Amino acid sequence: MNDPALIEFDHISVYRGRTLALDDVSLRIGVGEHVAILGPNGCGKSTLIKAITRECYPVYEDRSSVRIFGSDQWNVVELRQLLGIVSSDLMASCTRAVTGRDIVLSGFFSSIGIWPHHEVTPEMFQHADNAMTMMEVAHLADRDPEEMSSGEARRMLMARALVHNPRALVLDEPSTALDLFAQHELRQILRKLAQSGIGIVMVTHHLSDLIPEIERVVLMDRGRVVADGLKRDVLVASRLSELFRHPLELSERDGYYNLW
C-alpha cells in the first residue's frame, strides 16, 4: 500500500481578506518529492504554503478537500512537528531578545524562541547543537539574530527546521535578502539535504533557486496552477515569458536554470 501523500488538495479556494488568493487549486505532492512552486509575486505561492502549514484555511465547498499526510484533521502543533518550515516571516517574528540556540530549540515547540512554559530536555539541547553544527552556525549559538548576517540567520532557521527530524522541508522564498555568496551556500546545503532523502517543497520566484535535485515544477499565476510537470518540460522560455509577462531567455548549466 502506498504511503499517504504529503498534501492532497482537491479544488481548494482560499481568501486573504477579500482577495481570492487560491482559486480552485488541485495539487498532490508525495512524501519525499522535491518540488518547486514557481510564479510571480502575488500569484498565490505563499498562500499555498500557509494552506499546508494550516495558517490559512480554504472556504468550504462540497467538492473541495484537504489532506495532509493522509488526514483531513490536524492538531496544528502536531502537524508542524512533521514539517520543517523556513520563511522570512519566522525571523521577522523575533520581537524579543533570543539567541541562535533559542531559535533552533523553538522548532520543537512551533514557536519563535523559548518561553517559560516550554520544557527543554537535555536531548533537545543535543539535537539543537547537532543541527547548528550541520548548518555550520554552532559558533553563533549565543548570539542575537541582529548580530548575524542574513545568510547566517537563514542557516539558523534551517537548523530550526531540521532540529526535530521532520518528514519534509517547506521553504518560502529561501533566498530572499541573501547576497550571492549566501545564496550559493544555501543551495549547497539544500542539495545535501535533498540527497539525504528528505522531501523539499520550495516556493520561489527566482528560477536560480531550483537546485538540480528538484525534478518537478509547479507554475502558478493569479491563484491557479497553470502547469505541473517535469522540470525539463515545464521550464520553457515561451511559457515563462507569458508567466512573468516579459520577454525572457532561458539558459541551463550543470542542472541550474537562469532567466535573462
Please give a structural write-up:
The protein is of the alpha/beta class. It folds into two domains: 1-82 and 167-260, 3-Layer(aba) Sandwich (Rossmann fold), CATH 3.40.50; 88-165, no CATH class. It has helices spanning 45-52, 76-80, 88-92, 100-105, 122-134, 150-162, 180-196, 231-234, 237-244; strands spanning 7-16, 19-29, 34-38, 65-68, 83-87, 168-172, 199-204, 216-221, 224-230, 250-253, 256-259. Strand 8 (216-221) and strand 9 (224-230) form a beta hairpin. The protein is globular, with a radius of gyration of 18 Å. The model has no long low-confidence stretch (mean pLDDT 92).
Name some characteristics of this structure.
alpha/beta; Rossmann fold; 2 domains; six-stranded mixed beta sheet; 9 helices
Write the topology of this structure.
Elements: E1 7-16, E2 19-29, E3 34-38, H1 45-52, E4 65-68, H2 76-80, E5 83-87, H3 88-92, H4 100-105, H5 122-134, H6 150-162, E6 168-172, H7 180-196, E7 199-204, E8 216-221, E9 224-230, H8 231-234, H9 237-244, E10 250-253, E11 256-259
Parallel strand pairs: 3-7, 3-8, 5-6, 6-7
Antiparallel strand pairs: 1-2, 1-4, 8-9, 10-11
Number of domains: 2
Count of alpha/pi helices: 9
Count of β-strands = 11
The biggest sheet, with number of strands, parallel, antiparallel or mixed sense and barrel status, is: 6 strands, mixed
What is the first-to-last residue Cα distance?
45 Å
For this structure, the CATH topology of the largest domain is: Rossmann fold
Mean pLDDT: 92
Strand content: 25-35%
**Helix-strand makeup class:** alpha/beta
So, CATH architecture of the largest domain?
3-Layer(aba) Sandwich
Strand order across the biggest sheet? 5-6-7-3-8-9
Identify the CATH class of the largest domain: Alpha Beta
Instruction: Give the uncertain stretches in residue-range form.
Output: none
Helix content: 25-40%
Give me the oligomer status.
Answer: single chain
Mind telling me the CATH superfamily name of the largest domain?
P-loop containing nucleotide triphosphate hydrolases
CA radius of gyration: 18 Å
Structural shape: globular
Order of helices and strands: EEEHEHEHHHHEHEEEHHEE
